[in-house]
Amino acid sequence: MASASPAIMESGTASSDEAQAAARQPAVEIAHLSKTYGALTAVDDVSFSVAEGEIFGILGPNGAGKTTTVECAIGLRSPDAGTIRLLGLDPLTQRDDVREVVGVQLQSGALPDKLKVREILDMYRSFYTEPADVGELIKVLGLTEKLGDYYKALSGGQRQRLSVALALIGNPKIAVLDEMTTGLDPQARRDTWDLIRGVRDRGVTIVLVTHFMEEAERLCDRVALIDSGRLVALDIPARLAAQARGGKQVRFVPSDRFDDRLLTSLPEVSAVQHDGQHVVVNGSGDLVNAVILQLAAAGITARDVELVSLNLEDAFVKLTGRHATEGAMS
Amino acid sequence: MISLALRLPSASRRAAFAKIVRNEARLAWRRPVGLIAGVAIPVLLMVIFGEISAFQQPSAILGGITLFDVYVPILAVFAIAMIALLGLPVPLASYRELGVLRRLSTTPVPRSWLLAAQGVLQLGIALTALAVIFGVSIAAFGAQAPVSSGGLVLSIALSAAGLFPIGLMVAAVARTANAASVVGRLAFFPLIFFAGLWLPRNLMPTLLRDISNYTPLGAAVQAIQSSMLNGFPPAAPLQVMAGYAVVFAFLARRFFRWE
């Protein structure tokens, strides 16, 4: 459990981004999307919209329906129900127009081993009417040195970055990135985040599928939490975390034993639990002061006082009842 | 479902297709399994057979032609079959396995272009192999020039039209590139047996030759040999090849899986 969540500190900027975004035309609009495979309901009545210039996260455990949602959104699968609009275009009937403005990086998409990076980029570039400046793109992605290398010789991180490059090579207005940083080391992951922020700053809308909490928390303006095909929550990361917290949590070690009712009688306190010698108090408002004053009045002092801020990971666990990475194990 | 209408102007569209073909050619050159099996081996066999003097003696059992004359058409269909059954399906199955086709379907270019590019490339390789086999066997090893060039061209076109869809079926039934390679070989060996690689058709017992007449490679050898030595081929082998072309084109269309 993290203390001082970075999401809290960013909440101010996120809200203003949100207000700004709401004023513009939505880049992605999904309404009542459903998709079943036989008896399995992969996506169940999911609706959300993504504003232009937003970094939108789709978060959920493996098998939650994130990828199916995205594949329907870009027209790779036809949904059983619901409507999808990308910049006002229907990906099923206006495929060609959509492909020009939407860049996609799929979760599983390797390339032939024996092609060189330059040859791959040169070919994909030729597919678009107004391709991006490849030289600049690969410079930002740190692939300039690798132009003459075979795909086979690239590391996992380099392949992933090439994949991101191919998603951006057509100069898209919307970039859909599925598990973009899976398999990257922490430094490469941070570099990729910077790149994505840079791309967004150029006006590209980013839809990011991830099961990394930290990624969603650091990078996304808003996050849709999907579990078992359903949209469980949709908010800015900080507010999602707050939603899970339902207030605050204080941990401390008391100088003496006391009756729990001493604290539960306080309006600020919602629950009191014991964790070894620690007391864990959940509540809201000016929780720390209220608890410490009440204890002092009873002649008890508290040491090792800790205010725990619940983060998105906690929100996830609370809203779905499991950890985001759990599915990956099974 | 697959739309071919692109926003790219037609010149850029041709350029994009050319780039796909070019990269496919690079891949074929850099992992030359198909080139070795489909070009190098039949050409090498042709040279070896051409050097064996016994192969150059007109033979009474063969009806007065040489064994080399018998083998040139067999090696020609060897080349077409290897390219169609191995060269074409293995890369396609691998692209499906790797997700290359999926990635392509997220771009403005339809994934069917990759299939078309493979078709163009493999056809080009097959024509190269045939040009070398016929050209060198005639120029350097004294094989007969074709009596009916039109018949030869038609026979080759029909046999390719039958074998390429069979190759697509190989890519359809095989889940992976490795499986495609195994299935392609499994299909190749009985077919090339009936073409007469081990026992030329002229020497086959009647029953075996009758069966051979109805196999794609048997019919192809019959038609090519006839064009080389006698004249325009009889209708029967041409009809057999056309039949395979129609049936397998339908089956390949029906069963080919993109994912």
In words, what does this structure look like?
The complex is a heterodimer of chains A (about 325) and B (about 260). Chain A has about 325 residues and is an alpha/beta fold. Chain A contains 13 helices and 13 strands. Helix content of chain A is about 35%, strand content about 25%. In chain A, a hairpin with a 2-residue loop joins β8 (about 220-225) and β9 (about 230-235). In chain A, α1 (about 5-20) crosses α9 (about 235-245) and α9 packs across α12. Chain B is an all-alpha fold and about 260 residues long. The mean pLDDT of chain B is about 90. Classes of the chains: A alpha/beta (about 325), B mainly alpha (about 260).
Give structural attributes:
heterodimer; A: about 325 residues; alpha/beta; Rossmann fold; Alpha-Beta Plaits; 2 domains; 6-stranded mixed β-sheet; 4-stranded antiparallel β-sheet; 13 strands; disordered C terminus; B: about 260 residues; mainly alpha
DSSP strand (E) fraction of chain B? under 5%
What is the count of structural domains of chain B? Answer: 1
Classify the secondary structure makeup of chain B into a structural class. Answer: mainly alpha
Assembly classification:
heterodimer
Helix content of chain A: 25-40%
H/E series of chain A: HEEEHEHEHHHEHEHEEHEHEEHEHH
CA radius of gyration of chain A is: 23 Å
Number of helical regions of chain A: 13
**Structural shape of chain B:** elongated
Question: Quick summary of this structure?
Answer:
The complex is a heterodimer of chains A (330) and B (259). By secondary structure, chain A is of the alpha/beta class. Chain A has 13 helices and 13 strands.
